[in-house]
Give the backbone structure.
Amino acid sequence: MTARDLAHIAVFAALTAGLGLLGSFTVAGVVPITLQTLGVMLAGAVLGPWRGSAAMALLILGVALGLPLLAGGRGGLGVFVTPTAGYLVAWLVAPLIIGLIVGKRPVWWRVALGSVVGGIFVVYLFGIPIQAWFTQLTIGETILTSLVFLPGDILKVVVATLVTMGLYRAYPKAFDTSVGTTRPRAAQNH
């Protein structure tokens, strides 16, 4: 990885942590509604699968080390034994899926599709069973209580798509996913 790749990873880890500073609220259940999954969507769409996942791994490492990087100033190993643990694990996988769907050159419909599949479906796929296990509710009951997240998550998909496409138009270099590759040299005349 280049210094630029590391800087992009750090920026998106910080962006996702910063989205937690805006606070959270709980409508139903024990999992708070935050803007941090928007950061997860953006990391996958902008950085691609590997750097996006690396950004979330850096964030999760900081959380594990006790830094208060989650919404509400939460951090430490204790967050990994709560109903939100599955959602945090999903943050490592979601950018991978999003980045693979978006590809090297973002197109709005692929960004939206990737954000729905990775940022909603994958996050729920990991989060809901762990939440059900900790709360001792059935999967069905947990799915019903999790429906409260869906309108906000769909809005995050729209915002992630708009931001990604705007950034791509303004600064396409941010999307250079040719990590560790070199460009072929022009043939030399002898």
User: Anything to note?
Assistant: Residues 108-135 form the longest helix (28 residues). The helical segments are 3-21, 36-47, 49-64, 85-102, 108-135, 139-146, 150-170. Confidence is low (pLDDT under 50) at residues 179-190. The chain has one domain: 3-175.
